[in-house]
Design brief:
Blueprint: H1 2-9, E1 19-20, H2 33-39, E2 47-48, E3 55-64, H3 68-82, E4 87-96, H4 103-113, E5 124-129, E6 143-145, E7 158-162, H5 173-185, H6 195-198, H7 222-235
Parallel strand pairs: 3-4, 3-5, 5-7
Antiparallel strand pairs: 1-2, 6-7
Helix pairs in contact: 3-5
Length: 237
């Protein structure tokens, strides 16, 4: 216990760069199909924060059949997850009219809108849609991130998620979906932790990165918090 206390009290710099771990893919180029797919699994964490330096997240929200007022309510919700990490969410909005319900298809349309990559001055592009989206597993999907850790790459910093009406019975479902998918883009993986979810302001069985929307809370696990902060500090400043 004495050693632990000594380590915890050791002097620390005011700010410090996140720890960047070696890429298990080595020199595989990101524009190679295999390298692109494997890089977006982040088999090992790419970056881990070692301080709480503040970050501004410039988020472009594409409104596909969603009213701006609803999107603003969702941003209010998602800030509950990001504010404790000292990540300030700064949204801008744009109305769009995309076709189809396929999540990947909606993201492809978002990319085409901006020439294949996020626009200048934007960290992540998020499509909020009124459609009941589908993915490879069927229509039982609320959202989909284009790439785990995608904020690293201008052409992969995209995600999509549904807008849930108040009558759906999912408290803050739209905000939770957006926070969850953007968490993926910042390197977070699915976790099944429970104590931190139970301690959240909105108590639930699991934390934010659980793969079940109706069971998750607006709180990142400790491990995912470090990865989200690390990616944000490196790529969203």
């Amino acid at each position: 216990m004495t050693t632990v206390g000594a380590l915890a009290l050791a002097p620390q710099p005011a700010t410090a760069e996140p720890i960047v771990l070696p890429d298990v893919l080595g020199s595989v180029p990101i524009d190679d199909l295999l390298g692109d797919t494997l890089s977006c699994t982040e088999l090992t964490p790419h970056a881990i924060a070692i301080d709480r330096a503040p970050v501004r997240l410039d988020l472009r929200i594409l409104l596909d059949g969603v009213r701006r007022a609803e999107a603003k309510r969702a941003v209010f919700s998602m800030r509950k997850a990001f504010s404790p990490l000292r990540i300030t969410v700064a949204p801008t909005y744009r109305k769009v009219s995309f076709t189809g319900r396929d999540a990947d298809g909606l993201t492809r349309q978002a990319k085409r809108l901006y020439g294949g990559k996020r626009p200048r001055g934007t960290d992540i592009v998020y499509t909020m849609t009124s459609k009941d989206i589908t993915a490879g597993t069927g229509d039982n999907v609320a959202g989909l991130a284009d790439c785990i850790g995608g904020v690293r790459f201008a052409n992969r910093a995209f995600a999509v998620g549904e807008d849930f009406a108040a009558g759906d019975g999912l408290r803050e479902g739209t905000g939770k979906t957006m926070a969850h998918e953007i968490g993926h883009v910042f390197g977070a993986h699915h976790h099944y932790t429970s104590p931190e979810g139970l301690l959240a302001a909105d108590p639930n069985l699991l934390d934010l990165m659980a793969p079940f929307l109706d069971l998750c809370s607006l709180r990142f696990s400790t491990v995912n918090s470090l990865m989200v902060q690390g990616h944000a500090q490196l790529y969203a400043r």
